[in-house]
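As a warm-up, study this chain.
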Amino acid sequence: MGNRGVLMLPSVRRKSKEIRVGQVFIGGEHPVSVQSMTNTDTRDIDSTVQQILDLEQVGCEIVRLAVVDEEAAQAIKSIKQRVHIPIIADIHFDHRLALLAMNSGVDGLRINPGNIGSKEKVQQVTAMARDLNIPIRIGVNAGSLEKKLLDQYHGITPEAMVESALGHVDILEQSNFRLIKISLKASNVPLMVEAYRSLAKQVPYPLHLGVTEAGTLIVSSVKSSIGLGILLGEGIGDTIRVSITGDPKMEVKIGFEILKALGLREKGVELISCPTCGRCQIDLLKLAVEVEDRLEGIEKPLRVAIMGCAVNGPGEAKQADVGIAGGKGFGLVFKKGEIIAKVPQTELVDSLFKEINKMI
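Now compare it with the structure written out below.
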């Protein structure tokens, strides 16, 4: 991955074990992957399939489905036949749903072995998962820690979260199962960051990063960018999910923007646009939204700039591969800061995409 003349972070990435979820490798030296979760009823096969296909369009690499009962577990078989990315079954308490989901062809499980019953039930799940090469994510959530740990640590602390995770890891390892990844999610960013930092030093397994219950779009974007950005900048993290109350497609878009901002992925287009000022003589927001919509689906790494000022715009966006800058009644098309055309405002976007199409 080229650095285009900018500092790339992190300089040292934590070395974790490599696992495989369907066709996606997680851990080791593989790129940090971006995943999401459907908010449809998994038993509604058509709606769930459509949402997964929509997620695929914006680059989602792994998707998680809630498996609330046997019907949902069995629906995975039909869903799998109509989508293209790996599916993880999210299961709580009932080991039978894990077995049914694996029979339906699921690619991964999110299940905490400490809450699905007896040792025998855990061994049934791990034996089948091992035979089918299906990884298990241990998902520790600050809001649902074991009571004994809450009492021991006098509330929710990073130490309590880590101990919970290590307890679940121990159960799997005692069953000779090591296709493991772990998450330590919290809505409190400093709590989540400290928990991951601590766990990263104690286990070799890949880590799934996320700020849970992060809120609606703006709040979640801020909390996820800070929390995930801190950890990824320190080399911690192998796959991420941005949690948003709303459209899951935005989770994927923001996830990739976080990775691109840190220089960890170059998938798709990075759109640069200025905040506007008194010199701006075009409707820059309308222009930026139109360009962003038309850029969706382009996977080649490109930097595209939308600038409001024809005087300073090209120079301020020299690092962009291609861009446009508005003026009064006209606009400029530029590459790497060099002006290549002056066109009427009405032709500005089409002229931009004429240049983009030459690059993809």
